[in-house]
Design a protein that fits this description.
Layout: H1 3-56, E1 70-71, H2 73-78, H3 88-93, E2 99-102, E3 110-112, E4 118-122, E5 140-143, E6 166-170, E7 177-181, H4 185-194, E8 201-204, E9 208-213, E10 229-234, E11 246-250, E12 252-261, E13 271-273, E14 284-294, E15 308-310, E16 313-315, E17 330-338
Parallel strand pairs: 1-7
Antiparallel strand pairs: 2-5, 3-4, 5-9, 6-7, 6-8, 9-10, 10-11, 12-13, 12-14, 14-17, 15-16
Length: 341
């Protein structure tokens, strides 16, 4: 074999090797992309399903719709050592409001409008969010409702009430109604004495505070920005007070919720609002949810130039102040639900 033939063979083998390497890199990149997109779909669908379900049930009190007459004096008295007007526990136990919504919070839980200006509202300072910063620009929502089934459906007995759990008991849909701890049998007895039928319907109260938090104070590294976590705080399941944060899924980067308000109480939505009114005369009929989901893996060769519209909020990843976030894949999700309150 001549020198020329050897050089030609080396050249051809090099070109073939280069083609194979290029094909492998391309296939690997395509596989990574498909994996990331599949994960985004899974995370987005789970988060959207969870939020939709809770928003559908917002303000559900077992069919009792006169929440303004619910008596929680016994509950407040039992918790007075930890329950102050501006405490996080009081925020969850406010049975006379189906939902409390904080729009576009900053990293410390202070609410801002869609222009980034402070509204003066904020989460109580004693809310234990796991000592992590909230995701700037996302919404925080407190959803209050009872569980899906009454205690009677499982065979009611005061002996079966969990001492530290919170219950809503009422004699009929016109009242009276009392919110009480399971250990407070005096509240149950007093309510029965006020009821002509002396029969009660009892539901366990299950409020929760839903929010997004950062996983790390370092928002950008060589490996990318750790994705935020969708978390919630509930009442303790085995004691008094609030439970530690429970994080449900990674990767939800923004939550935006707007509410359909029925100002004239004709059953139709008259107005969409970022923050629902507290007046009972204007019930919430529906809610629109916009989510933005972000991948966990940094792709240096990928750049996301898109600007996302979430409700009235505009989000530009490149202008977010975290340089590496533009190299993460994103997908937005949207749905609208009708409330059952």
């Amino acid at each position: 074999m001549t020198l020329t033939e050897v050089m030609v063979s080396l050249l051809l083998s090099s070109l073939l090797t280069l083609a194979l390497v290029s094909l492998f890199v391309s296939a690997r990149r395509s596989s990574l992309q498909d994996e990331q997109l599949a994960t985004l779909q899974e995370v987005g669908r789970y988060a959207l399903s969870f939020l939709s379900r809770e928003l559908e049930m917002v303000g559900f009190m077992g069919g009792f719709d006169q929440v303004e007459v619910i008596d929680n004096a016994a509950l407040v008295s039992a918790d007075q050592s930890t329950l102050t007007q501006d405490s996080c526990l009081a925020l969850l136990l406010d049975g006379q409001a189906g939902v409390t919504h904080f729009n576009n919070v900053n990293e410390f839980g202070q609410e801002t409008d869609h222009l980034g200006q402070s509204t003066g509202r904020s989460l109580p300072s004693d809310c234990n969010l796991g000592y992590r910063r909230l995701v700037k620009g996302s919404d925080v929502v407190v959803i209050r409702r009872v569980k899906d089934h009454s205690i009677q459906e499982r065979g009611f007995s005061t002996d079966n009430l969990v001492p530290w759990a919170v219950y809503l008991s009422f004699s009929d849909l016109s009242g009276p109604a009392v919110m009480h701890r399971g250990s407070d049998l005096n509240a149950v007895t007093a309510l029965q004495s006020r009821s002509p039928q002396r029969e009660l319907e009892t539901w366990e109260f299950a409020p929760q505070l839903i929010y997004l938090r950062e996983q790390s104070d370092v928002l950008c590294t060589d490996q990318g920005a750790p994705p935020p976590e969708l978390c919630r705080i509930r009442l303790k399941q085995s004691g008094y007070g609030l439970s530690p944060p429970q994080c449900l899924v990674d990767g939800v980067e923004r939550i935006n919720i707007t509410f359909g308000i029925d100002n004239d109480r004709n059953g139709m939505v008259d107005q969409w609002a970022d923050v629902p009114p507290t007046a009972l005369a204007a019930p919430i009929r529906s809610a629109a949810v916009d989510l933005l989901v972000r991948s966990a893996v940094l792709e240096p060769h990928y750049s996301d130039p898109k600007i996302y519209l979430l409700g009235r909020d505009v989000y530009d990843p490149i202008q977010d102040g975290v340089a590496c976030t533009e190299h993460h894949r994103r997908t937005s999700f949207h749905t609208a639900v009708e409330t059952r309150n």
